[in-house]
Amino acid sequence: MPHMAVRGLLALLFILLAAGAEAFRICAFNAQRLTLAKVATEQVMDTLVQILARCDIMVLQEVVDSSQKTVSLLLRELKRFDSSNYYSSLNSSLLGRNTYKEKYVYIYRSDKTQVLNSYQYDDTDDLFAREPFVAQFTLPSKILPSVVLVPLHTTPKDVEKELNALYDVFLDVSQRWQNENVILLGDFNADCASLTKKRLNSLLLRIKPGFHWVIPDGEDTTVRISTNCTYDRIVVHGQGCQSLLQAAATFNFPRNFQLTEEEALSISDHYPVEVELSQAAHCIQLFSLTAQLLLSLLLSQLD
Ligand SMILES: *[C@@H]1O[C@H](CO)[C@@H](O)[C@H](O)[C@H]1NC(C)=O
Ligand SMILES: *[C@@H]1O[C@H](CO)[C@@H](O)[C@H](O)[C@H]1NC(C)=O
């Protein structure tokens, strides 16, 4: 076989493998009292922007922003960093039972995903301190054209009650939009002093079938060296979602950006948590099959 043809096959192989590896990343981050003054600090902004740029959709919690200035500033710096203009945001109103209020903010790449619809969960019995602001996004996947995100930042003294009420939010949204592919995510405070192992394991979202807690118990999602708690979680539901699931992890930003504990704590006392969805489960199989075929072809030529 001519040399050129082998080179061509190799190139094709790499393209196929690269295409198969491209994933869609969904993240959640408790950015700890994210105010305008905080993002205006250069070092905080620099790190935040790098954390945000990793994600196709980021769900920020604890955004303390009565104007829209904090998010506008973040978006401006993000677009500058990424030299693309493909970032948009969607925010809830300020939520909370007393004078302290915060909002949920989605920041997403509008060239890869769009908001189909969103609503504030109607919390008639006041079960949540910050009721989920639910949104449905498109995905660049033929297998799973859309996914529903349900964010929650629990209040530490009501973790069990709120996490059980989260099951009702799941029922509400999956019926409303006829979509079982739901990702529940955020700072659930689901560990340490806020929730014992026994109570964790008796939650509806643990007992009912079909819910996959992809950030495992024992994973440290806290920045402080002296703490080790799995507060931040991602729970995946639905066949489509499951079949595309590629990876789930915390993002240890202090280690990645070589920050001291103190520097990291100026950004947040939490790590972001992330899931990666592949574009198409079937395609991955097709890719690896094609790759194997090409490889054996190549090897037979080398004999
Ligand atoms: C987003 O925040 C702005 C400013 O606080 C507010 O006016 C707007 O109503 C919020 N969006 C939603 C959907 O609540
Ligand atoms: C946190 O605790 C778990 C056990 O619950 C352990 O496996 C893990 O290594 C600890 N992580 C850190 C960073 O200390």
TrEMBL record:
<feature type="domain" description="Endonuclease/exonuclease/phosphatase">
    <location>
        <begin position="29"/>
        <end position="270"/>
    </location>
</feature>
<dbReference type="GO" id="GO:0004530">
    <property type="term" value="F:deoxyribonuclease I activity"/>
</dbReference>
<keyword id="KW-0732">Signal</keyword>
<keyword id="KW-0540">Nuclease</keyword>
<feature type="signal peptide">
    <location>
        <begin position="1"/>
        <end position="23"/>
    </location>
</feature>
<keyword id="KW-0325">Glycoprotein</keyword>
<comment type="similarity">
    <text>Belongs to the DNase I family.</text>
</comment>
<keyword id="KW-1015">Disulfide bond</keyword>
<feature type="active site">
    <location>
        <position position="102"/>
    </location>
</feature>
<dbReference type="InterPro" id="IPR033125">
    <property type="entry name" value="DNASE_I_2"/>
</dbReference>
<dbReference type="GO" id="GO:0005783">
    <property type="term" value="C:endoplasmic reticulum"/>
</dbReference>
<dbReference type="GO" id="GO:0006308">
    <property type="term" value="P:DNA catabolic process"/>
</dbReference>
<feature type="active site">
    <location>
        <position position="153"/>
    </location>
</feature>
<dbReference type="InterPro" id="IPR036691">
    <property type="entry name" value="Endo/exonu/phosph_ase_sf"/>
</dbReference>
<keyword id="KW-0256">Endoplasmic reticulum</keyword>
<feature type="disulfide bond" description="Essential for enzymatic activity">
    <location>
        <begin position="192"/>
        <end position="229"/>
    </location>
</feature>
<keyword id="KW-0255">Endonuclease</keyword>
<dbReference type="GO" id="GO:0005634">
    <property type="term" value="C:nucleus"/>
</dbReference>
<protein>
    <recommendedName>
        <fullName>Deoxyribonuclease</fullName>
    </recommendedName>
</protein>
<dbReference type="InterPro" id="IPR016202">
    <property type="entry name" value="DNase_I"/>
</dbReference>
<keyword id="KW-0378">Hydrolase</keyword>
<dbReference type="GO" id="GO:0003677">
    <property type="term" value="F:DNA binding"/>
</dbReference>
<dbReference type="Pfam" id="PF03372">
    <property type="entry name" value="Exo_endo_phos"/>
</dbReference>
<dbReference type="InterPro" id="IPR005135">
    <property type="entry name" value="Endo/exonuclease/phosphatase"/>
</dbReference>
<dbReference type="InterPro" id="IPR018057">
    <property type="entry name" value="Deoxyribonuclease-1_AS"/>
</dbReference>
